[in-house]
Amino acid sequence: MKKSYAVVDIETTGTDPKTDRIIQFGCVLIEEGKIVTHFSTDINPDQNIPTQIQTLTGITNQRIKKAPYFEDVAQTIANLLADTVFVAHNIHFDYPFLSNELQRCGLAPLTIPGIDTVELAQVFMPTSLSFRLKDLAQELHLTHENPHQADSDADVTAQLLLHLEKKIIELPIITLEKIIATADQMAFQTKEYLEDCLMKMQADPKPLSKDLAIIHGLALRKKHVPLFSENYFGKKAYPRSRKEKEKIYHGELDFRKEQARLMNLVFDFFNIKDHKNVLVEAATGIGKTMGYLLPMSFLATPEDPLVVSTVSLLLQEQILNHDLPLINRILDQPLQAVVMKSSRHYIDLDRFYQSFEKKSEQKQYTFYQMALLVWLTQTETGDFDELNMTSLNHPFWQEIAHLGTHTLNANSPFYQADFIRHRQEKLAQSNLIVTNHAYLAQEDQRRERQLPKSSYLIIDEAHHLNHVLERTSTQQFNFITIQRRFNHLWEDQQFLVWQELVQKDQQTQHTLEVFQDVLQELNEDLTDFYQLFKETFPIVDEGLITKEQIDQLSLVGEQVLQRIELLYQDALTLGGQLQTYFFQYKETFTIKEQAHWSDLQALLDELLQQKTAFETFCEKWDARYIHWFNPNRKTFKVQDLEAAMISETAWYERYQQILYLGGTLKIGSDRHYFAKRWGIPEAALKIISSPYDYAQQARIYLPTEGISIQTSSPDQYAQYVATVVRKMAQTQQRPILVLFTSHDILNRVYQRVRAPLLNEGRDVLAQGIGGSREKLLKRFLLSKDALLFGADSFWEGIDLPGDVLQILIVTRLPFENPQRLQVKARNEFLASAGINPFFQEALPHASLRLRQALGRLIRSEKDKGVMLLLDQRFITAKYSDKLRKALPKELPVKQLPLAEILLETAQFLNSDKSEEN
Fold first, then answer.
1. What is the pLDDT, as a whole number, of residue 205?
2. Are 171 and 376 in contact (CB under 8 A)?
3. Which pLDDT tens digit goes with each residue over 67-89?
4. Cβ neighbours of residue 322 under 8 Å, at least 6 residues apart?
5. Which of 408, 441, 445, 411 minimizes the C-alpha distance to 423?
6. ∠886-889-894 over CA atoms, to 5°?
7. 23 by DSSP, 3-state: which?
8. Mean pLDDT of 391-408
């Protein structure tokens, strides 16, 4: 018997089926893969519809006055749904709510089978950015005329189901079989629906796609490594003139004077080789990436590749997926690129395969497994960042993350398909290597370098380098994490598992027993040391630790400290002996045994990190190192205040020449700020003049009714910011970026504005709520009128096209809090070196961030943007002139009542720039 699918959506007065009522019912019937019937009706709930629901749905109290009551249509709906399979986007809401309403009217509750398209999308569309219905509709280009109205939502859900079924049927049978075997926790009868799809596939089997291969029960996309080959003989001349450049552009690129100047500067620097370092400031939006990729295509080879380091994974992705395809359309000799980042960003196929042995009962764990089975038929990289996950903090991701090629078994069935090995093969054929500042900085901490030596290194977004180097240099020793890890070893009986693996060798069995004893003793000594430290230094929240304080430890304390250092050394020595056994016998291991050894390798890596952090904390007491202790989080930390001295790093010498590129490398009138910070004071700064007409393209406004930040309480300040944000949002149906300097204030403002803005149909995205930085930015890019609240990294290194962002609210001048321990310690360190901490560090840093914030608005000669600055110190402080000098001098700055600012903002952004000119 052919099944009929009833795709249902309801709109209600609220979420409680006991007190709320349905205000609209929509249903679409699908039979034999086609939409055959639409049915929808408004319903009078016999109660007021809340304002929020009216705004969200467009269904008003006036509209439903003459609509039938649910009692009038209940039997019709029950008849419509009889003998169908109920389908909804979040069935856990629609099905019980509708069933409750039918019962209220004296009819039988729903007992028909059900399918949830949210769960189907999560599994079969694993790379989607969001699984909200309107976002999926946008991604799939489905017609969705009235979001949050039942008729429109039901129709889109029906189209989504048909799309999902098509994707399911196209999968290899072996993939769907493994998904079904893992699908016990899917909602309602969603698993049975998948079994029906499988029966269809088995009745009419299709040959396996030529792009796929079945390896040990997993369907994987085949990987390709294009060989690099010279497309012309001899050295082709670099196109220096405008005429020569336009000739190779073929109409794909517009000639841009500033970009052309950058191209020539890059080519000359790396071709003439007069100096090791040069800094280049070029305005955001002139096409900097193209500005260095094109000239470097005439110089870089796989033997001597161009290494590009940028600030974030998102920008790495942008270079690879946006800029590279564009530049390669015009090049006779295309650039071949590979992305380099931590191995933990990639899936280990052995470990993933082994995860199914666990037979987890946790629903989220099994959903990740099913989604990855689908993803493996799509990905050539195995890079988790393709999945757009909210976060990778779930234990599942740690269990299947790659630990590096040194843990691989050449006899594993997945060895040839390994993603890191594939990346290494691509690396050998690539003349462009795209990495990030953190990965570059971590080269100093690696036993084996992962990036090749080269004549060419370009550090893009170089103004972020200081912060990244300092963050990377910070080492922490967290007792909670370490003890939890040790406890898991005993609770999971991990040593018994490892004992089974070393039965072939009595000496190794003894080594493992001693290793276990050492870790137990280490765990006890760490507990003793923490308690002793806490008693000796009764710090309430967080405090700096000095060498003098450490020297005051009792004799017992010193002995415990020395014992811990020796125990770490013993543990790693024994671990090395266990690794020797592993490398000797690893080719005889099964996939399951290999996964257990990978767990041991992960433990040894953690022990080495712990040992390094502990020794650094206890032994490095030069003035450049600051130490602090947080008793609540049971954490020791140490940071190198001179980590930004590039010239002292190990990776610096591996590059013959380095070009540092950024939108803001001159601070006020100081052209040497960054060069001095990096320990290369002789490096020249070249400035590519900005093409933007800031007098016509941008405005900075300050409300006259601003409040004093210093004298206001956090609640008063948050209320003021929330009021301004609400008023701007009410007058401007555009995306708005709101930048904060405090996560506490960000959260307070978010709590005040989220509900009222949601009532008006506006999304509010906030850092730390609802996903990673990358995911929030992608959602913001897709939105027409969302608000994005960000702090820290949102001031910098984000690429939002000017047509996406025209309004920026800066809640406070971006000074670091001088009372923070690290800031206070850094200021004392600078003062001891004869450097004024405020005028030579804090003020330049704030100026830099303010200019970067402005750079978010103006990224092309057609952009227009408004910055609303809620900090009167920009005008009233003694140092305000220095802040102003950091911004373009022609940029208009106005102080007006907020009502006038809102009016002027609307007029300015709506005016036609061509008319103004």
1. 93
2. no
3. 999 999 999 999 999 999 999 99
4. none
5. 408
6. 95
7. strand
8. 88
Task: Give dist(CA 212, CA 823) in Å, integer.
Answer: 54
The answer to whether the CB of 377 falls within 8 A of the CB of 219 is yes
| Cα–Cα distance, 156 to 144 (Å, whole number) | 6
Can you spell out the DSSP letters for 356-377? GGG----HHHHHHHHHHHHHTT
Angle, helices 494-501/506-536, rounded to nearest 10 degrees: 150
- Written as one letter, the residue type at 737 is L
- Per-residue pLDDT of 418-461, as tens digits, reads 999 999 999 999 999 999 999 999 998 887 899 999 999 999 98
Tokens 């992305």 sit on residue: 339
**For 476-518, what is the HEC assignment?**
EEEHHHHHHHHHHHHHCCHHHHHHHHCCCCHHHHHHHHHHHHH
SS3 704: coil
Burial class (CB in 10 A: 0-12, 13-18, 19+), 430: buried
Longest CA pairwise span in the chain (Å): 89
Quote the crossing angle between the two packed helices 173-181 and 363-375, to the nearest 10°. Answer: 180
Measured distance CA(381)–CA(343) in Å, rounded: 11
How many helices and strands, by DSSP H and E, does the chain display? 37, 25
Burial annotation 304-319 (CB, 10 A radius, 16+ → b, else e): ebbbbbbbbbbbbbbb
Q: Please tell me the distance from the alpha carbon of residue 330 to that of residue 664, in angstroms, as a whole number.
A: 29
pLDDT of 796: 66
Rounded-to-integer distance, Cα 179 and Cα 174, Å: 9
Instruction: Report d(CA 103, CA 24) in Å as an integer.
Output: 18
Q: What stretches of 771-820 show up as alpha helix (H) in DSSP?
A: 773-782
CA distances from 707 to 713, 763, 819, 879 (A): 11, 27, 22, 19
Asked if 437 and 660 touch (Cβ cutoff 8 Å), the reply is no
- Of 568, 679, 580, the closest CA to residue 619 belongs to 568
Burial class (CB in 10 A: 0-12, 13-18, 19+), 738: buried
Give the C-alpha separation, 629 to 476, whole Å. Answer: 10
Element (H, E) at 831: helix 821-832
Going by C-alpha positions, the residue among 875, 862, 900 that lies closest to residue 698 is 862
684: amino acid identity, one letter? A
* Matching residue, tokens 């309430």: 540
Residue 913: pLDDT over 50? no
In the three-class reduction of DSSP (H, G, I as helix; E, B as strand; rest coil), residue 830 is classed as helix
| Least confident residue range of 27-31, 123-127, 824-828 | 824-828
Q: Identify the three-state secondary structure at position 636.
A: strand
- How many residues belong to the chain? 917
Query: Could you tell me which residues come within 8 angstroms of residue 667 by beta carbon, excluding any fewer than 6 positions away?
Result: 673, 674, 844, 847, 848, 886
β-strand 454-459 against 306-310: which pairing, if any? parallel
CA quadruple 130, 132, 138, 144: dihedral, nearest 10: 180
Mean per-residue pLDDT for 195-211? 95
Q: What is the pTM (predicted TM-score) of this model?
A: 0.86
Angle in degrees, CA 344, 600, 409, rounded to 5: 70
915: confidence class by pLDDT, cuts 50, 70, 90: very low
pLDDT band of residue 186 (cuts 50, 70, 90) is very high
775 pLDDT more than 80 = no
Cβ atoms of residues 451 and 443 within 8 Å: yes
Cβ-based neighbours of 876, under 8 Å, separated by 6 or more: none
Q: How far is CA 588 from CA 349, 352, 504, 575, 738, in A?
A: 18, 20, 11, 20, 57
Asked if residue 623 has pLDDT above 60, the reply is yes
Q: What is the mean pLDDT of residues 562-581?
A: 92
